[in-house]
Design brief:
Elements: H1 2-25, H2 61-73, H3 77-84, H4 91-110, H5 122-130, H6 135-152, H7 158-177, H8 183-195, H9 199-212, H10 217-227, H11 235-247, H12 258-265, H13 280-295, H14 303-316, H15 320-330, H16 345-362
Helix pairs in contact: 2-3, 4-6, 5-6, 6-7, 6-8, 7-8, 8-9, 8-10, 10-11, 10-12, 11-12, 12-13, 13-14, 14-15, 15-16
């Protein structure tokens, strides 16, 4: 009898491992580069893995130019001018605040400073010291503190809470400097998640954002995290929040893609359901996201976020041609979900891209048949 139980356990373990392998590699197998059966992404004009930009989800040349200037000269004024000229309630301002804060945080991580050494990110400290009333600098500083908390401390620890409390105070200061700007409150959404705001406190914060930018996709994505099962909500609450946002989305808004992000946040660690990625809940969310990107303006900076997540689901669902259509738009930048959850975002993206190419060609596709 004991032998029978052991055999049954081994069969179940083998099944689980097979599902994990499928979940990671998809339905099409990968072969070594140079193998006769290997599909070559380069044939489609895709960037090499080492050329993929992990800093942003999509192109923003003005931001890249200013980031390069600031980091090269350690002069904050380029960042100050760029943010001052960026629409306060738009998606791009939020992304640029995140990018500047992230750059300063990574600089500090690489150069923590020591005896006789200037720590990284010094330009942000100078910015706050020389222009304490500058709203852009205040918002970047608040986001910098949030990123420092998540990167350097364990959630729930005393160190984490100390940094988050400092970030909360910085958000309040930034909000006072720019009363109509939603960004300080969007930054505080991450503080709310980290410090565990009560639902009443969170709702009050969320109303401040809705008063300023009711259709801000980045804000909705940040708020969704709070309502997820892994934080302070549940699968049902997260789905309800995402579906409500999609239902009230104006024409051309990427809020219609919110249910796909809710599905992603609640994917099972091990998928034991055959055809999960062709299921009704996934298919409906994918179709909503496809409609959103087709309806939104091509200059909407949140498009890239949605398209990256679509690649993940379309590859998993073996919808190769549709995945290739998304890749043709976003290739070159990988600073978005789901790739940023990996320790090597470029490599993770490259695996899915290779699977898409292989699946596309296995079904008769080629560079000549792909619309450009």
């Amino acid at each position: 009898m004991e032998i029978l139980w052991v055999l049954m356990a081994l069969v179940m373990l083998g099944f689980v491992l097979l599902q994990i392998s499928r979940r990671r590699r998809g339905a099409v197998g990968l072969v070594e580069p140079g193998h006769p059966d290997a599909a070559d992404p380069a044939n489609y004009g895709f960037a090499r893995e080492e050329e993929l930009d992990i800093r942003m989800p999509g192109p923003d040349q003005d931001l890249l130019d200013v980031l390069d200037l600031v980091q090269r000269t350690q002069d904050y004024r380029g960042a100050q001018q760029l943010l001052a000229g960026t629409e306060a309630k738009g998606e791009r301002r939020w992304q640029r605040v995140q990018a500047f804060a992230g750059a300063a945080s990574l600089e500090l991580r690489q150069r923590p400073g020591g005896v006789g050494e200037t720590p990284g990110g010094q330009w942000l400290r100078v910015w706050r010291a020389e222009a304490p009333k500058d709203a852009g600098g205040a918002a970047v500083h608040a986001e910098f503190l949030v990123q420092q908390a998540w990167r350097t401390a364990t959630p729930g620890s005393d160190d984490f809470r100390i940094i988050m409390e400092e970030a909360k105070a910085a958000c309040g200061e930034a909000a006072l400097l720019a009363p109509g700007d939603p960004v300080p409150y969007i930054v505080e959404l991450s503080v709310a998640r980290g410090l565990g705001y009560s639902r009443e406190e969170f709702e009050q914060l969320w109303l401040k954002i809705l008063d300023r930018a009711p259709n801000h996709t980045g804000a909705h994505l940040a708020a969704l995290q709070y309502w997820c099962e892994k934080w302070h909500g549940s699968r049902e609450l997260a789905y309800s929040f995402a579906e409500a946002a999609a239902a009230r989305a104006p024409r051309g808004s990427l809020l219609a893609a919110m249910p796909l992000f809710a599905v992603f946040e609640h994917l099972p660690e091990v998928n034991l359901v055959s055809g999960f990625y062709q299921s009704e809940v996934v298919t409906k969310a994918v179709h909503g996201a496809l409609h959103a990107v087709h309806s939104a303006g091509r200059d909407d900076p949140m498009q890239a976020h949605v398209r990256h997540l679509l690649v993940f689901f379309l590859v998993r669902g073996e919808r190769w041609a549709e995945a290739m259509n998304q890749l043709m738009v976003i290739d070159g930048h990988v600073g978005a979900l789901p790739w940023t959850l990996s320790s090597d975002p470029a490599a993770e993206f490259a695996v899915y891209r290779a699977l898409a190419v292989a699946g596309y060609e296995a079904n008769g596709g080629s560079p000549a048949t792909l619309p450009h």
